[in-house]
Automatic annotation (TrEMBL):
It comes from Salegentibacter flavus. It catalyses: Hydrolyzes single-stranded DNA or mismatched double-stranded DNA and polynucleotides, releasing free uracil. The keyword Cytoplasm applies. The gene is ung. One of its GO terms (molecular function) is uracil DNA N-glycosylase activity. This is Uracil-DNA glycosylase. The lineage of its organism: Bacteria, Pseudomonadati, Bacteroidota, Flavobacteriia, Flavobacteriales.
Length: 221
């Protein structure tokens, strides 16, 4: 499988992508895409990195793995292609933005507009077999994406990490909280949101206040 990382990220991750586990991972993914229907499309596996360059990244949102249904996943966590019905978690994200920032719910669930402003929409696992959630977990993707988080933490300053739900919150140990802002809450999925663990977290306004305080342009959510 072609390693489709843009040059700036490839430079930052050059030691990681040489490692044996990563080469084995690429081989596994290549075989999976040859033998099964997998998502996102192969040329969009590293899409999050293409939209949010290393220097440009100022917010990191962490998801678990791509949507497993046809037409949804395009390489950015929580995001779907234009014209695709909003999955429940994304609907709740937009509802929280509406409540927090008084912004209307958008017509499209495509979050490339966030990514292009420096929001790295990173899934812990970057590929999945169709209709089989978690089917590409524990094959090496999580080692790779943990390294991405570590490198951002080590080499950058004043990045906002949004960790939603128990899985994402475990990544807090990878982040130096003396130089970055970490915001945690329940997951936006209906199960968590309806129990009161999501709505009212005000993560989007808090993120923008922090960025402005640090002299950075806020995100147009």
């Amino acid at each position: 499988m072609k390693l489709d990382l843009p040059p700036d990220w490839k430079k930052e991750l050059q030691e990681e992508i040489k490692k044996e586990y990563f080469q084995n991972l690429l081989q596994f993914v290549k075989q999976e895409y040859e033998e099964n229907t997998c998502f996102p499309p192969q040329d969009l596996i590293f899409n999050a990195f293409k939209h949010s360059g290393f220097e440009n990244t100022k917010v990191v949102i962490l998801g678990q793995d791509p949507y497993p249904n046809p037409g949804q996943a395009h390489g950015l966590c929580f995001s779907v292609n234009d014209g695709v019905k909003f999955p429940p978690s994304l609907k709740n994200i937009f509802r929280e933005i509406e409540n927090d920032l008084n912004k209307p719910i958008p017509l499209s669930g495509n979050l490339e507009r966030w990514a292009d402003q420096g929001v790295l929409l990173l899934n812990a696992t970057l590929s999945v077999r169709a209709r089989e959630t978690g089917s590409h977990q524990n094959k090496g993707w999580e080692i790779f994406t943990d390294s991405v988080i570590r490198i951002i933490s080590a080499k950058k300053e004043n990045v906002v990490f949004l960790l939603w739900g128990g899985f994402a919150q475990k990544k807090v140990k990878l982040i130096d909280q003396t130089k970055h802002l970490v915001l945690t809450s329940g997951h936006p999925s209906p199960l968590s949101a309806n129990r009161g663990y999501w709505f009212g977290n005000k993560h989007f306004s808090q993120t923008n206040k922090y960025l402005q305080k640090k002299g950075k342009k806020p995100i147009d959510w």
